[in-house]
Every structure is written in C-alpha cells, then in structure tokens.
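Note to self: keep these together.
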Amino acid sequence: MRDILLMVIAFNFTNVIVAWPVGALSDRVGRRGLIAVAWSIYAVTYLGLAIAAPGFPIVVLWALYGVYYGVSDAVGKALVADVVPSAQRATGYGILNMVTGLVLLPASILAGLLWDGVGPHAPFWFGAGCAAAAVVLLGFINRRSRAGSPKADRERASRT
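Structure:
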C-alpha cells in the first residue's frame, strides 16, 4: 500500500513541477518538438515498465510518467489554443477531451486483452511501440503547418 502511495505522489509531484515551465518553454520554442519529447518520454517509460524486473523501483518510472503527463497535457492544450479560433476555443477543448475519452475505452480493452492473452508486459511493449511510431510519424507531418510555432504565433498576433 505504501508503494502505491509513493507512486501517486511521484506522478503528481513531477507532473506539477514540469507542467508550468514546459508550458512557458513551449511559448518560446514551439509545440511540435515538445510533443515529440513527451511521446518519447512515454515510450521510454512504457519500455521501462515492460522490462522492469521484480524489485525494480517502479516509483521511478511513475515519476517519469508524471513528467510525460506534465509535458503532453500542458503543450497539447496550448496547441489546441493555437489552432482553434478564439471564438471556438471551448469547443476545441471539448472535442479534445471527447476524443481522448473515446479512444481510452478501446485502448484499455486492448491493453486488457494483451495482458490476458500475451502477458503482463505486452500492453507496455505495445504502448511503447505506438508512442515511438507516433514520434516518427510526427516527423513526416507537413512541415508547412506551423501551428504552435513561435514565429506563427507572432505573425498571428501582429495581424490582430
């Protein structure tokens, strides 16, 4: 029970410590690279959970998961603010949360099926692979789309 409490504390502590500075950093350097960093942290965390041996301090991986969450949540929401017109911003956040909720159910079912059918490490291998693939695919997204870049933000601000 104590270990679970330590994991929850580690996750929340790192999430809180990381979110604000990373959000501010994304205002200066853009969102795309930080999203890739977040997904890379996710892949490393899930890889660690897949290969962790008994006795490994899982609390360390949960702290790293908190870092992932702090980066992805802050930067992801800032990206929504960048790409959605201000008059529809609440709708944009609503759609983000709706889509997140809709994909979490099948993802959780798949994780359960992998856990039961293949083994307890399988969902973590799968999650790490998906995150790594997402980072690679992010590199192929049309680079002309500059949403979330500091230069695009300055240009948009100068037009208003």
